[in-house]
Amino acid sequence: MATGKPPNALLHGTLDTLILNTLAGGPRHGYGIATYIEDASGGAVLVEDGSLYPALYRLERRGLLEAEWALSELGRRAKFYRLTRQGRAQLVAQTAAWRQFSAGVSKILLAQ
């Protein structure tokens, strides 16, 4: 990618939606969220801790996520996040907005 910016710079503004979408499949801890996004994107989207955890805390403060401590699959204590009803509604709205935006950008980029 020759944008002059690291590929993850494109992630800005979409991370919240990616997190909400990831949690639509069920509760996950932070590492599980980051791993899912990386795997589902074929390695194209890497979410670093410095971006992930502030986003999780922000979403929790906004009432879009709830969290509780539990044991991970490795038997370690981890904070698991899950969508609230408000989070599901926000995911629907953000997904619709993303589809509209990406369709518009595609029209421009593919017009040549």
Task: Give descriptors for this structure.
52% helix, single chain, 4 helices, 112 residues, alpha+beta
Q: Work out the oligomeric state of the chains in this entry.
A: single chain
Helix content, binned percent: 40-55%
Sheet-strand content, in percent, reads 5-15%
Report how far apart the termini are.
19 Å
- Rg: 15 Å
- Write down how many β-strands occur, each being a DSSP E stretch of 2 or more residues: 3
Could you say which overall geometry the principal axes of the C-alpha atoms support? Answer: globular
Instruction: Output the number of helix runs.
Output: 4
List low-pLDDT spans. 1-5
- Largest sheet properties: 3 strands, antiparallel
Order of helices and strands: HEHHEEH
- Average pLDDT figure: 89
Which structural class do you get from the secondary structure elements? alpha+beta
What topology, given as strand order, has the largest sheet? 1-3-2
Overview of this protein structure:
The chain has 112 residues and is of the alpha+beta class. 52% of the residues lie in helices and 14% in strands. It is built from four helices and three strands, in the order H-E-H-H-E-E-H. The protein has helices at residues 15-23, 30-40, 49-61, 85-109; strands spanning 28-29, 65-71, 77-83. Strand 2 (65-71) and strand 3 form a beta hairpin.
